[in-house]
Hints:
The protein is α+β, with helices and mostly antiparallel strands. It has helices spanning 63-74, 92-110, 131-135, 138-143, 150-156, 209-221, 256-278, 297-308, 311-318, 325-333, 368-371, 398-405; strands at residues 23-28, 40-45, 50-55, 79-86, 117-124, 165-173, 176-185, 198-203, 206-207, 238-243, 250-251, 286-294, 344-347, 350-354, 357-358, 375-381, 387-394.
Amino acid sequence: MTISKISPLAPKNSPKMPLLAGLEMATAASEIKYKNRDDLLLMVFCSETTVAGVFTKSATAAVSVLLTKKVIKSNDARCLLVNAGNANAFTGKKGERSALSILSSLSKISGLPLSSMMMASTGVIGEPLNEDLIKFHLKKLWDSKGEADWYQAASAIKTTDTFTKVTSQIINIDGENVHICGIAKGSGMIAPDMATMLGFIVTDAKIEKTLLQKMLSETNNKSFNSITVDNETSTNDMVIMAATGASKVNILSQGPNTDKFILALQKVMTCLAHQIVKDGEGASKFITINVMGAVSNTSAHKIAKSIANSPLVKTAIAGEDANWGRIIMAIGKAGEPIIKDLLTIRIGGVLIAEDGKKSEGFVESMLDKHIKSKNIIIDVDLQIKNGNATVWTCDFTHDYISINADYRS
Length: 409
């Protein structure tokens, strides 16, 4: 399968991605699946680094997920090896042995303990991993660590992605600059439930592990866990965050510096999440769904996800058809408390539905300009209590079918 065109929603500008102290990266081409491109990424962290992670809740989680969760729990993470092209999921004992064999070889080459080796894999599910192809490149990866930049790293982890996903933030804390850099991959099989998508965030701040995990989990809920492309949760989803501490700036559990850092981290996480949606397989429109006035934030999130995951809503938007009845359908099937006569629906700020029916002043021509734009905004106000949520998704076009019908060829 060949991805021939870049998403029309791809960012027009490439952000500057600073080198980050305490981290060294390298890439290589193993040709597990893809020809003439790097498909392996090695990230090596300094000894002071703390690491946190959020992972798929899939009952068929991949070997890499299970191994990496153990390493993070042990608080001994030093290396992350990523391969694209093969998920090594549902591959039985052979898949486990392959992953451990690869990491054992990396441990011997690096001199670091096996217990410090993390792994992330993405690609086709159910196919055995060719460990020899990866092991052949481990020495080169280790010897060239520090030579790859963020763009090379982001490119190496792509599968059906049409563009590299990178972003960064620089904040000043007590006169010192602190950096947060992140990359991600994902285009289809996107409905994170933690968190095929991968995200790797690194900061040079010093952050204690428990606090780092709390920050990651909270910002994840409002970013990666608030996107959906096709309502499919992958076997391999994970987001890893590492704090190298190389800047010597210590982020503590409370205070204005912590708030400033969390705000910057949320921007990084949200930006990467948006890029995944904007690279949704075949996507032509980026859709923001705001639900307010629900009985709780959780209820609002479920209703927003019901709208975002509706194939009928997504195809109507792809066809630039303002079929608001499909939004009503998606709200009703969510199984959450609503009062029909109270809820309102707006698309692009135009009031469409109120008082349990179509708004008397609404005519579809009022939406012509907005529905033809690349950025669609749907606002639902239930007017019951104060629960609110925002979810981002994309439309469904014929290209989504073409990409996935041809995925393994």
